[in-house]
Amino acid sequence: MLTSLQNPLVKQIRKLHAAKERHKQELFLLEGTHLLEEACAVNYPLVAVCCTPEWQASHPELWEQACNLCDRSEIVSAEVLNAIATTVQPDGVVATAKRRDQKTQLPVTGIVLAVETLQDPGNLGTIIRTAAAAGASGLWLSGNSVDLDNPKVLRASAGQWFRLATAVTEDLTATIVQSQQAGMQVVATLPSAKLTYWEVDWRKPSLILLGNEGAGLSPEIAAMADKQVQIPLSPGVESLNVAIAAALMLYEAQRQMIYRQ
């Protein structure tokens, strides 16, 4: 059992709390039973799995699954687990995994989201969770956004991070142009738009542009859209949370696909 905070593996995992080290090591953190279950369910390749003796005793099947997917498994003391976790009260297990290839291409069918300069990991995780639930084809994230594999993003996604195709684009403009050339309609969310989001035909392959929490979409990106839509708000209400806005459009798209065949 690992009990020393000076153990090389422990020190390596603790460094993954910082984005710079996650990029350098090409690894990210998985914390908690639920995220580990979701990773195992899709056979996501793990690097190391660490758990307390108590957690191992109460999750023997999941421990065996994780061990089969990882390069190294270790039983650790509660003190070590607390040190390697980013959460205040970890539930007994932490794993590391290889970062996804974030330069992959996404589908140009169905509904795809493109998120510009998003900073809050909770918002991104919630958008990923909602997109997976609503059957979206994927999500583009601009390179100046929060890390796609930030621990808080994974937790907020409730494990759906593993089930939604995602990619990072360093040139969102080029990504939008490529989507349009592939036949997708590009829809921007703007408070000043004339159309409401339910007036769009979401049965067409669509790329939904979502902006920063405070500033919204940049004018340059918004101007590239084929359609600009708004979400009606009662007087005095300035805006909706970006994850809520995404949910409304994703489920309107799903409703149209089901009931307007």
From TrEMBL:
<dbReference type="InterPro" id="IPR053888">
    <property type="entry name" value="MRM3-like_sub_bind"/>
</dbReference>
<dbReference type="InterPro" id="IPR029026">
    <property type="entry name" value="tRNA_m1G_MTases_N"/>
</dbReference>
<dbReference type="GO" id="GO:0006396">
    <property type="term" value="P:RNA processing"/>
</dbReference>
<comment type="similarity">
    <text>Belongs to the class IV-like SAM-binding methyltransferase superfamily. RNA methyltransferase TrmH family.</text>
</comment>
<protein>
    <submittedName>
        <fullName>tRNA/rRNA methyltransferase SpoU</fullName>
    </submittedName>
</protein>
<dbReference type="InterPro" id="IPR029064">
    <property type="entry name" value="Ribosomal_eL30-like_sf"/>
</dbReference>
<dbReference type="InterPro" id="IPR013123">
    <property type="entry name" value="SpoU_subst-bd"/>
</dbReference>
<dbReference type="GO" id="GO:0032259">
    <property type="term" value="P:methylation"/>
</dbReference>
<dbReference type="GO" id="GO:0005737">
    <property type="term" value="C:cytoplasm"/>
</dbReference>
<keyword id="KW-0808">Transferase</keyword>
<dbReference type="InterPro" id="IPR029028">
    <property type="entry name" value="Alpha/beta_knot_MTases"/>
</dbReference>
<dbReference type="Pfam" id="PF22435">
    <property type="entry name" value="MRM3-like_sub_bind"/>
</dbReference>
<keyword id="KW-0489">Methyltransferase</keyword>
<dbReference type="GO" id="GO:0003723">
    <property type="term" value="F:RNA binding"/>
</dbReference>
<dbReference type="Pfam" id="PF00588">
    <property type="entry name" value="SpoU_methylase"/>
</dbReference>
<dbReference type="InterPro" id="IPR001537">
    <property type="entry name" value="SpoU_MeTrfase"/>
</dbReference>
<feature type="domain" description="RNA 2-O ribose methyltransferase substrate binding">
    <location>
        <begin position="29"/>
        <end position="103"/>
    </location>
</feature>
<dbReference type="InterPro" id="IPR051259">
    <property type="entry name" value="rRNA_Methyltransferase"/>
</dbReference>
<dbReference type="GO" id="GO:0008173">
    <property type="term" value="F:RNA methyltransferase activity"/>
</dbReference>
